[in-house]
Amino acid sequence: MSELSTTSNPPSPIKERIILFARNNMGLISTLISTLAIGLALLIGGILIAFAGIDPFDAITYLVKGSFGNRYGFGETLTRFVPLLFCSLSFAIAHKSGFFNVGAEGQLLMGAVGAVLVGAYIDGLHPILHVFLCIVAGIIFGAIWAGIAGFLKIFLGSDELINTMMLNYVAILLVDYLIHGPIKPPESYLYVSATILPSAKLPIILSKSPLHLGFIISLLVTAAVFYLIYRTPIGYQMRAVGANRRAASYAGINIVWATIVALLTTGGLAGMGGAMELMGTQFKIVNGFSAGYGYDGIGVAVMGRYNPIGILLAALLFAVIRVGMGAMQRGAGVPFPLLNVIQGLIIVFVIASGYLTNKLSETVIGGRA
Amino acid sequence: MDAAWMTTIVTWLTMSIRMSIPLLFPSLGGLISQKAGVYNFGLEGMMLCGAYFGYFGSYITGNPWIGLLLGVVSGGLLGLLLAFTSIHLRVSQLVTGLGIGVFSLGITGYLYRLIGIGTATTAATLFTSVDFGRLGSLPVIGEIFLSHSWMVYAGFVLVILIAWFFFHTTPGLNFRAVGENPQVADTAGVNVVTNRYLAVVVSGILASLGGAFLTLTQTAYFTENISAGRGWIAISAIVLGKFNPWGVLLACLLFGAADAAQMQIQVMNLGIPYQFLLMTPYILAMLAMVGFVGKVRSPAAMGKPYIKH
To answer: Is this complex's ipTM strictly greater than 0.85?
Structure first.
């Protein structure tokens, strides 16, 4: 960038036009760069499929058909979209508030535990009330799980990144314990939790598909989250703490309070995602209930560049890949972990492409036009 | 004290040493990287790749050394990737590290499922224990200290080497300077970029050694997610060890002892649900950091990209 801005030769008209175009279309260009990054990740995925001796085009047909080629697959994609969206919102709000919550996986699981306790063991409620109480329980359990890391950070100075990660492993083991005994129905031979009552299930909103009301709720929550961050005083305080802790402190912002609110929100969102997944899709907790939604959510937030539209699109893309990958496994025999390969590459490429975008905007702003 | 208790304690101490090694390698790796000013949050993924490719190479050729070589190359390459993104591209070290973790979980799981799962024929050839001759048959001491594979001793030697390198050599001093104050180091003629690259690549190699230790000396099999969070616990061990190689060794021995203890208690069948026993390493890793962050001084320029002016 410095070569360009310090050059003594006047830029050629063509260069001038390119710079002008770039300056007016930065959003478009960064989207394009992200798309290229995703394309590259998918390309490597295709090479790996070919390496397994499977025709990649055959596999891609399964991906497309499985994820939005028919009514059921389309519904399934939008269903997977829900927990992904919640987990990415959880990561994004923590990121905006200046800490790393890599514990959505555990918080989601605990949220599902909260929802299963209310959904399976409290009987005789009106469905609307029952659903509402299940969601509240999910939020509370998720928030408590994040709150452990928050407590350790705020009062004992312990690093939240490692703690939220460690709490994922603890949550998985805790849930494993619960479904081996305390919340296992006595008559069951399998290690599962009790199934929630019909009154706690979310209604299907697209017939002949698994799509449930949680999809609508997740969109509303997205709007609410970004309203909270950008349009409310506490949201402003959270962002201020995230941008510069010390400056926020000098400005008289109560850092502890802002951090607590952010932590409870980030945990609550992941927990709510767990409740939705339970009440709309799985109805009971089994081993592997979460299947990596918490980690995928990080990728979604990074790819969506922490803004609402970006996150919605990224969550949709990840959902398509996830559902399509299942269809590819069933149809073409592609091992499912390819999902993580592609998502990991997307994370690395998209974050790396941020460099290009930054460099380009420096050039454009520094260059003459 | 009766003989049964004696046996239990000897086994526990032996296991403590053995279980500290898969933490020691990645911890030392993370330490080197952090000393040079770069966070390596990809340790977990690098371990996984080391474990898988170590297993794969040994399984295919029947020679654990080839496996080790493959594992180390995979860790080094991931280190190179992390070095490139964090030093040249200056993008988030945390997010890249997490991406490497997700990618590694996927690629090892993918290749593993392609090649076949857990049948008897898929066992890798293991490194055998070092033969200390008659010393090895000494009571108690022979079993606790002289019954391990060479990788265990390599881990301890590495601690000595790294401590000597950091505190008694000029390159080691330069290395630390790069992590403390890259501007000053640069002015003094130390190449910040080269040092940081070296640090992160070596860090990847060490992390993959930790993973290879699991499959090449312990299990002979790969299972998905075999590292089970050790790459993250390692970061806690670095903090607990106060960024000092000797401290890190002690921290890893402590974690190893806890891990060995929970394994022993599982075998004793005391009626404690095994899930709670399995939780102990993670909870210990959380407790280990309580009150340390802030009091322990980490390298001043850690996590900050260096921009040459």
So the answer is: yes
